[in-house]
C-alpha cells in the first residue's frame, strides 16, 4: 500500500477526526550513563515565554513491513514545533544526536536553553552531552522512575507529556492509517507530515487554534 499523496485528507484543516488510541508498546531504555545524570530543571513545567527557552526530546518506534524503524524528535515547548528529528533502523546514540544537531542548526539557540530528556543511554552518552555543552545548552533529565516510554493515568506527572502527545498524534493521524512497505517509505512520509503538515498547518488548541509556525510568526 502506498503512502498518502501530497493532497492527503489531513491537509483539509477541519477534516481531522478523533481516532481511538491503541495500546502502548512498552520499551525499556538502556541505562548506561557515560557522562552522568543531570538534575530535573524542567520540573514538569511545560510552558515557555519565548522560542528556544525549553526543548523536550524523546524517541518512538514505527512499524513497517520490513521491520521497526525509530524516530527521535526535538520539540520547542514555546510553540510545540518539532525543530529537529531523525529516523534510523537502530535505536542508537546517533539517532538522538542527529535530531539534536538538526535542531541546533535550524534554531541557533542562545546559551541557557533547557534541554529535557529521560535517562536513556542515547541522552547520557558522552558525545550527546558534549554537544549540549558546546552550545551552552543546559541538560535536564527526569527522575529514576521515568525511564519507560509509557502512558500514565495523570499526564502531568509524566516527564515529557507534551512530546509524548506528539507521538500519539502522529500515530493516530498517520502511522496507524498506513501500512509502510519499507523504512524508506516511512521516513519520506513522516518527514512530509512533520514539515508540511504538523509544523505548518496543524492547529493546536494550546496555541489559540493555529499551527506552531503560525504561532511563532504571530509572536514575532
UniProtKB/TrEMBL annotation:
Pfam families: rve (PF00665), rve_2 (PF13333). Transmembrane segments: none annotated. InterPro entries: Integrase_cat-core, RNaseH-like_sf, RNaseH_sf, Transpos_IS3, Transposase_IS3/IS150/IS904. NCBIfam families: transpos_IS3 (NF033516). This is IS3 family transposase. It comes from Kordiimonas pumila. PROSITE patterns: INTEGRASE (PS50994). Residues 47-220 form the Integrase catalytic domain.
Amino acid at each position: 500500500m502506498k503512502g498518502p499523496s501530497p493532497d492527503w485528507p489531513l491537509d483539509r484543516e477541519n477534516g481531522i477526526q478523533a481516532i481511538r488510541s491503541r495500546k502502548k508498546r512498552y520499551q525499556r531504555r538502556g541505562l548506561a550513563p557515560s557522562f552522568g545524570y543531570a538534575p530535573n530543571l524542567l520540573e514538569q513545567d511545560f510552558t515557555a515565554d519565548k522560542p528556544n527557552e525549553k526543548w523536550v526530546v524523546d524517541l518512538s518506534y514505527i512499524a513497517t513491513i520490513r521491520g521497526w524503524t525509530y524516530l527521535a524528535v526535538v520539540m520547542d515547548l514555546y510553540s510545540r514545533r518539532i525543530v529537529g528529528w531523525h529516523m534510523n533502523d537502530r535505536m542508537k546514540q546517533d539517532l538522538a544526536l542527529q535530531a539534536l544537531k538538526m535542531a541546533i542548526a535550524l534554531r541557533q539557540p542562545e546559551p541557557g536553553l533547557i534541554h529535557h530528556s529521560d535517562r536513556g543511554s542515547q541522552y547520557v552518552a558522552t558525545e550527546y552531552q558534549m554537544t549540549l555543552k558546546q552550545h551552552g545548552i543546559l541538560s535536564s533529565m527526569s527522575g529514576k522512575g521515568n525511564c519507560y516510554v509509557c502512558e500514565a493515568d495523570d499526564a502531568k506527572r509524566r516527564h515529557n507529556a507534551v512530546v509524548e502527545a506528539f507521538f500519539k498524534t502522529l500515530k493516530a493521524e498517520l502511522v496507524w492509517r498506513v501500512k509502510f512497505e519499507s523504512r524508506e517509505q516511512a521516513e519520506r512520509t513522516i518527514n512530509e507530515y512533520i514539515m508540511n503538515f504538523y509544523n505548518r498547518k496543524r492547529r493546536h488548541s494550546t496555541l489559540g487554534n493555529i499551527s506552531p509556525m503560525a504561532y511563532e510568526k504571530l509572536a514575532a
